[in-house]
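I have a small job for you when you get a moment. Can you supply me with one protein entry, sequence and fold together? It will help me judge whether the discrete encoding reads sensibly. Write everything out right here, beneath this request:
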Amino acid sequence: MRGYGNLESTFAVESQMDELADRLGLDRLEFRLRNVVRPGDVTVQGSRVTSCAMRECLEAAREEIARPPARPPRPGWRRGVGYAAMFHVGGGARVYRSDGCGAILRLDDFGKVTLLTGASEIGQGSETVLAMIVAEALGVPLERVEVVQQDTSIKPWDVGVHASRTTFVAGNAVLLAAAELKAKLLAMAAEVMDEPPEALELADGFIFVKAMPERRLPYDKVVRAGHFREGGQMLMAEAFYDPPNEMLGKDLRGNISAAYAFAAQAALVEVEEATGRVEVLKLVSAHDVGRALNPLAAEGQIHGGLHMGLGYALTEQLVVREGQVLTATFMDYALVKADEMPEVVVRLIESVDPTGPFGAKGLGEAGAIPVAAAVANAVHDAVGVRLRELPLTPERVYRALQAREDRVGSP
């Protein structure tokens, strides 16, 4: 479950943000812009913000939601726009004594780099992004990098896949190991090319003399020259990265993450007043990603989070009566189907975090977290009723509309 715990609290907090703005007579987005977190801030919980593009995310959400959808409004349906923002860990989360991850790199005599990482691939694309980090840090072709993470009997330790931490924590471990491996390779090249290591550089698959770039050798040829000789050596490096974060104290204060992720979403909905049915026409999701190492994969993560968040907002409900689960199958537990997804717009905002690998921050959970709040705020904007329980089923919306009519005496 992406972001469990934060979806619930964000639903409450962002609903209250709209209520506060209304009481103050302020525009709901303007109220959020007046209260944005900034780089260098320390929150009341003790979270130290290193990078933050919340303002840019809110402005991007406002810009994109203003573009009208192709479908005109329907008779009997009311339209509304809702906003919600999000604050989440993006650089690990020290909920155990260690929040670290190990990495082992091996460079063979054919130029193939093997990464053994503690991180686990569960469909989020970590193998690809970690391979990209290796290739970028070493200056070798991406197709020469292989990631091994399936076998716990040989892979190094990692605390687990949670807290949007893999790119940040495992990526930093990879960078540390890559720096050591590169230094060993350049030292080997110094003997082969009769140059001091500091005069050499590795890029695009070649080791070359900085002052004379035309003096170059393919890196795999250098490795073979170092292997196939008397006193030859293997090229391996290892690293363990444990981020500089803190366990929460008994007062629930502390800098639990080394970096924090921010996002803003806007939802355009239609509500049928006669039935309480809610349809989401458009979702805009703008995310402070630090730096997008793999933009296409990052956008895919957000799409998946939006789908999960819509289910949480509109349809998914575990019903238990007298100890019996009544929604135990997908016939009864309603998932949002592909053809029910609205128009989706994703904006990646790069703040370049100083502690992340190449500036990246975690992203895996962020897409799901603000969805329910944005949709609920849009429903309120459309028909004027505030729901405080999820999912926003037609029955609940209809009953809220009827209760409002009973209070005021007319529609």
Remarks:
- The chain has two domains: 6-93+252-408, 101-241.
- The mean pLDDT is 95.
- Residues 166-193 form the longest helix (28 residues).
- The chain is about 35% helix and 20% strand.
